[in-house]
Amino acid sequence: MAKKITMQKIADHLGVSKFVVSKSLSGKEGVNETTRERVIQAASQLGYFTQKNAYMQNAKRSSQTADNDRNKQSVLVLMPNIRSQTQDSLYWGKIVDGIALALDEHGLGMVIVSEHRADNFVNILNPGGLLGLVGVGTISTSLLLEVHRIGLPMVLIDHEDPLIPSDTVFANNMDSMSRLSNHLLGIGHTRQHFIGPIRYSRSFRDRWIGFRSALEEGGLQSQAGDDELLLQEGMDAIILHEEFKQWLMKRKKEDNVPTALLCGNDFIALTVCNVLREEGLSVPGDISVTGFDNIDDAARGIPPLTTVHVPKEAMGRAAVEKLLSRINSPSAPLEKILIAADIVHRDSVGELRG
Q: Could you give phi then psi for residue 83, rounded to 5 degrees?
């Protein structure tokens, strides 16, 4: 039988006091952020969070009252206060719609919170009136730790945290991007390039990995991992426009422009198409462009975008079903659910000329 991981063992491992470990894991003040992160990381590596006493027992207590209280309880939907990650967005809004529909079918309410500071979040968190949490998009470790600390069951959509264990729901990004790249290879595009910040989210990294794998399996060399367009910070439209324009001008001077650009999402692809038009290049006559997500604007692009349809409402529904399953079976193994995504063929892709 594995030995129990206690706060004292974490303290001994790090060479700090048990008091410091306790404050760090409870989210209390009096510990600087660097020390807190070290404690959380050590606790995760040693297996503290996976023990029943750290999470499962609290979750079990919640489940015992769930059947009696369900009619008056709600699910917290946490969406950090980021401009591109709001209920009104073309991507996240559809996911929230799926969550709302599924909860309504089960007679449950929904409380949406947009908060990115752990101290503010603690003040509004009332676990006694909540069945669990569905996290939408990127959420900081400190926020997730607060949820985990009180034993509130949670499911994350389009995000996972290496330190805080939870059930997760993703589109099958890797497989879908691989199939898209293979489709382009099949119509002659052996000079492909991925456009998008791979450190922005887990989904972007998976899409990059799927793209790279398709080229390598086809016996082709993939772009270097230090390409400047892979290392962008954030998704600001103006910055993206200028950085891609500079990248394109450099490639044109070197006579090394790819014939196909596979973008991390539709927002990037639409920006790329705008820059290409400004520089006198035709899509798909000179360069084929693809997106990912199939937001409504993708079909209205000039030209309409070939993209990957992510079933956003289905992801929201799957997260709710997984959360209710977790409440009923708190000791079951954690799951990563992958939702299949299909290619939508439109006019931004054409066969390679000549």
A: -55, -40
